[in-house]
Write a structure and sequence with these properties.
By secondary structure, this protein is of the alpha+beta class. It has three helices and eight strands, in the order αββαββββββα. The strands form two sheets. It has a six-stranded mixed β-sheet with strand order 1-2-3-8-5-6. It has a two-stranded antiparallel ribbon with strand order 4-7.
């Protein structure tokens, strides 16, 4: 039990405590990257394949390059939902089936806790800068190239 008296100094510094909590984030390994394509458009997607990376997603990032995104690989095919808590940049999400075909696309607002869900069971979700899918003519039914490298069936 720690007992503190008014006027006494604490046995640790708050800076040290802050560094202790910041260290895991600073030591985190970069996520693997996969090259995907939507028609003739190249996508460089970080892969979030475990619970921790899926929960963190693109939170706290101030920006994302134009043709970059994050591919979420879920453990099972079901109706998955996304939200934007602690996410600083506006994003669009495409939910994908087991073959990597687009089910539906939703535009999402930064800092929103509103859920955006797959219209039917999905195995993957791809987040890109908001409007990327519309600007590149990506619509439901389009199958993304390169999905075989992450286990999508043909």
């Amino acid at each position: 039990m720690f007992h503190w008296k008014a006027g006494a100094t604490l046995p640790f510094s708050f800076l040290g405590l802050a560094l202790l909590f910041a260290a895991p984030a600073a030591l985190a390994q970069p996520l693997p990257v996969v090259q995907l394509s939507a028609g003739m458009h190249a996508i460089r997607a970080e892969v979030a394949a475990d619970m921790g990376s899926r929960m963190t997603g693109l939170m706290h990032r101030p920006s994302m390059p134009a043709n970059a995104g994050m591919l979420f690989i879920f453990d099972e095919t079901t109706t998955h939902c996304m939200w934007m808590k602690n996410t600083l940049i506006p994003l669009s999400v495409a939910f994908l089936d087991e073959a990597g075909a687009v089910i539906n696309i939703a535009d999402m607002q930064p800092h929103s806790e509103q859920s955006h869900c797959a219209a039917r069971p999905a195995r993957y979700a791809l987040e890109m800068n908001r409007g990327w899918f519309a600007q590149h003519g990506v619509k439901p039914g389009l199958r993304l190239g390169g999905m075989e490298s992450v286990g999508a069936r043909r």
